[in-house]
Amino acid sequence: MINTVYRLVSAKTFEVSYNEVDLEESELIVRPTYLSICKADQRYYQGDRDPQILAEKLPMALIHEGIGKVVHDSSGKFEIGDTVVMVPNTPVEYDNIVAENYLKSSRFKSSGFDGFLQEYVTTTSDRVLKIDNDINPYLAAFTELISICVHSVDRMDKFAHERRNTIGIWGDGNVGFITSLLFKELFPETEVVVLGRNHEKLSHFTFADKVMLINEVPNEFEVDHAFECVGGMNSQTAIEQIIKYINPQGTISLLGVSEYPISINTRMILEKGISLFGSSRSGKKDFERVLDIFKKHESIIPYLENLIVETVRIRNIDDIKDAFEKDIVIDFGKVIMIWDK
């Protein structure tokens, strides 16, 4: 079987390449159907990474959020035509302490290894999960992003002390939206306050108990624990503000990615006894958790569907570039590609 791969070779430049897929040696082959553009993919597309990193990782097929249909399965676990969500993280070892998404040896698609911008994706049966046909495929396309937020919320539940009267979530983008939605749904008794820079974006957070602009926070405001979902250099300002308003011995979850080092007020971290933990990517069990939440907490589905703001049918390289260009100008929400190959 000949596979067509669409690789990014330099900023905003894709090239088509072909490789042979051996059916006898391939356990599972999935034909992508709906793909979602991630901020990490966008940074590669725009060349907004360190030149040395780009030189090491390109050429590379982008995209690590997506679903597809099974076209070949030698394991016997799936039916041909089953719709599955693909787990981009591929561990090569097991550790009873370190999760698969933190193992140095794990291979992550679209970060040093080809992602889902291919006609066919060769994988294994343990790296996909069957999804119900009644799940909105546009929503299912960004299950991976939701799994990252679920991962962080579950870790907060594990690490934070039991006083959870108020949780503050800094960030009015996609990650802040999903994280605050999940936390409010899973811990309804806790007051969830979302803080951001953009009043229009904050207007989407109708499920939150409160929203406020970061320059209008009252002096008496306080939170027991907090999530930083800002990223970039602005994460420094967000963390400074969290440290100011968090109560002693509070826990801070860091989710925002910054390409450059930022400074943190360690004096106040020590004085307040604050705990910080970082969350990155996710593993298969987090995907399973998301699919379980979809079934048990159906009320969150319409909120998540509100993140679908643009859909683009993909047939060639020009369509791929069009999707990425549209994603650049979107300040809130997701661009979903219908992979019509």
Q: Which descriptors would you attach to this protein?
A:
18 strands; 30% helix; 29% strand; seven-stranded mixed β-sheet; alpha/beta; 341 residues; Rossmann fold; Quinone Oxidoreductase, Chain A, domain 1
Radius of gyration: 20 Å
As for the CATH topology of the largest domain, it is Quinone Oxidoreductase, Chain A, domain 1
The CATH class of the largest domain, by name, is: Alpha Beta
The percentage of residues in β strands lies in: 25-35%
Strands, total number? 18
Number of domains: 2
CATH architecture classification name of the largest domain: Alpha-Beta Complex
Q: Low-confidence stretches at least 5 residues in length (pLDDT < 50)?
A: none
Number of helices: 11
- Return the structural class: alpha/beta
Molecular shape: globular
The assembly state of the depicted protein chains is: single chain
Structure summarized in a few sentences:
The protein has 341 residues and is an alpha/beta fold. The protein has 11 helices and 18 strands.
What does this structure look like?
The protein has 341 residues and is of the alpha/beta class. The chain folds into 2 domains: 2-142 and 307-339, Medium-chain alcohol dehydrogenases, catalytic domain (Quinone Oxidoreductase, Chain A, domain 1, Alpha-Beta Complex); 147-278, NAD(P)-binding Rossmann-like Domain (Rossmann fold). Helices cover 30% and strands 29% of the residues. The chain contains 11 helices and 18 strands. Strands 3, 5, 6, 9, 10, 17 and 18 form a 7-stranded mixed beta sheet that branches. Helix 4 crosses helix 5 (174-186) and helix 4 packs across helix 9 (284-296). The chain starts with a strand and ends with a strand.
